[in-house]
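Entry for guanosine-5'-monophosphate complex. Fields follow.
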Amino acid sequence: LRTEASLHDALINKEFVLHFQPKLDIQTGQLIGCEALIRWQKDGRLISPMSFIPVAEETGIIIPLGQWVIEESCRTIKKWQNEYNFSLPIAVNVASQQFEHSSLVPDIKKAALRYQIAPELLEIEITETSLMNDVQLAIKKLDELRSAGFGIAVDDFGTGYSSLSYLRHLPITTMKIDRCFVSDLPKESAIASTILMLGKQLDLKIVAEGIENEAQLTWLQERGCLIGQGYYFSKPLPLNIFEDKYIKQH
Ligand code: G
Ligand code: G
Ligand code: MN
Ligand code: NA
């Protein structure tokens, strides 16, 4: 069912939608950005990216699909600027296959140019594992993206096999503490503490993902973590609901 052909048809038939999850300054509660998360709207149901992104990667459909995510995110940034006079950064997830494809950097630059948005408003999230597949290629691509002004976040940090010596050479701006380490807080805190310290040393923004309760939030606030995301604040929301809650009365 979820084959190359059906994903291709879904793209043509505009069955994909983006949901948006807020990122907050956890010291002040201020909204500072959001993450775009794709869903497949199929026969009135929403299909999770976990069930089609792997197929999209295997079949190569991830290239036009990922391009759509980038375009749609840029279009949404522009829409919020035009309709609500609000510039909110959007972070988009980039799959391994997509990151390694030669069209990624030109696609991102073209989309930002087409919608006339400042590159600082678009952040690319790449998993630690994708970056470590081919470190030399990663450095080259990230240098291109950084010098063009786009933000770069390492997603799911702590779950892959980062070489810390390479990490130092990657021009990244943000590290996202994987939610499995946040869910252990405050009882098990060794990894989260270490990532926070590493972020400070490397002068990176640290985002704590998957904050689900007050105790996790308090632990992070007390240790100087600045940015948070998670169900405690909000689940990923459809565009119209995200706009009602966060954009219209910013
Ligand atoms: O939103 P949700 O929890 O269902 O996401 C599940 C997984 O799918 C996460 O790992 C997330 O990063 C990934 N994902 C969500 N949206 C996109 C997307 O637009 N592109 C890619 N490559 N992955 C995505
Ligand atoms: O791999 P990535 O970090 O991009 O995955 C993001 C996904 O994590 C989101 O799509 C969302 O569905 C999920 N997520 C976001 N916040 C929470 C949370 O607080 N708890 C859990 N269990 N999942 C979350
Ligand atoms: Mn992500
Ligand atoms: Na993540």
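NOTE: The chain has a mean pLDDT of 95.
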